[in-house]
Amino acid sequence: MKDNSKLIGYIFEFAWILPSVAIPVSVITAVILTAFAVGIRVPDIAGRIEPQAIDQTAPFNQPGLKELAPGKYEATYIAQTWLFTPTQIEIPAGSDVTFIVTSRDVIHGFKIVGTPVNMMVVPGQISKITAHFDRPGEYLLVCHEYCGVGHHVMSAKVIVK
Ligand SMILES: [Cu+2]
């Protein structure tokens, strides 16, 4: 009888080596694809601001919705414990909206449920993200960074008509 134990050993060894190489390679490939081919970006810092001077600094001295061109909007928000200003905006379906957000006090979150809009709002920084709204409806804007006892009531609405 031939002794196959050495061959079986190699097969088992290979069965472990293969996934330990394939898993990291596929994760790195997925990260590279999403960053460069699909264009998914983590929202970065769009600027800095003095938190005490928000009310005197444009565009935060006039928070709200501005129409830049037909179907192109800019929405300026101030996040503070425990509300967003403005509390509601209305846009027509098919619009592109750039959200420009800063915080007056502590770190907040800025997430519009059912859309890719998901940012952190850090005092002293300006966060910016653009999203396209095709589907009419009421979108809930929530804070998703715990910011104190009223965190769970910190929300606003984006209405797409
Ligand atoms: Cu919060």
Give a written overview of the molecule.
This protein is of the alpha+beta class and 161 residues long. It is 20% helix and 40% strand. It folds into 2 domains: 40 residues; 116 residues, Cupredoxins -  blue copper proteins (Immunoglobulin-like). It contains 1 helix and 11 strands. The strands form 2 sheets. Strands 1, 2, 3, 4, 6 and 9 form a 6-stranded mixed β-sheet that branches. It has a 5-stranded mixed β-sheet with strand order 5-11-10-7-8, with no helix packed on it. A hairpin with a 5-residue loop joins strand 7 and strand 8. The protein is elongated and about 85 Å long. It binds copper (II) ion. Copper (II) ion binds next to loops.
List keywords for this structure.
single chain; 161 residues; alpha+beta; 2 domains; six-stranded mixed beta sheet; 11 strands; binds copper (II) ion
